[in-house]
């Protein structure tokens, strides 16, 4: 668990967390939790019929990983006030997803931190990119 305090965070500081490999059971559970019952997330044949290599993970699963990761940076010292992402790659069952964050701004008065965030399944190959803001408690 990361949990950083306000005075420990620096501009350009980077954070990283690697999730365990994604398995099909996790995708099916996420289908139920999210209400996204598109079969490209559960059935290889359906996914291949539309040109995919097989079952793919939900983009929102990667967004959830990033939300959890940013929340772990702030812990109980504040909250995630903004999370925005764009999906730029495919995540497959068996992939190991690495979450990354880089501090791009620190507002001393508002006690906020701005982050560039991303997930990747291979070094230098992002699957999700975006930004987030953390508001620390005064």
Give the overall form. Answer: elongated
N-C termini distance: 22 Å
CATH architecture: Roll
**Helices and strands: which structural class?**
alpha+beta
Task: Characterise this structure.
The chain is of the alpha+beta class. The chain has a single domain (10-136), classed as Hotdog Thioesterase (Thiol Ester Dehydrase, Chain A), CATH 3.10.129.10. It is built from three helices and five strands; from the N terminus they run βαααββββ. It has helices at 24-34, 44-49, 59-74, and strands at 14-18, 78-87, 98-107, 112-122, 125-136. Strands 1-3-4-5-2 form a five-stranded antiparallel beta sheet, covered by helices on one side. A hairpin with a 2-residue loop joins strand 4 and strand 5 (125-136). The chain is elongated, with a radius of gyration of 16 Å. The protein starts with 13 loop residues before the first strand and ends with a strand. The mean pLDDT is 94.
Summary?
About 25% of the residues lie in helices and about 35% in strands. By secondary structure, the chain is of the alpha+beta class.
List the keywords.
Thiol Ester Dehydrase, Chain A, 5-stranded antiparallel beta sheet, elongated, alpha+beta, about 140 residues
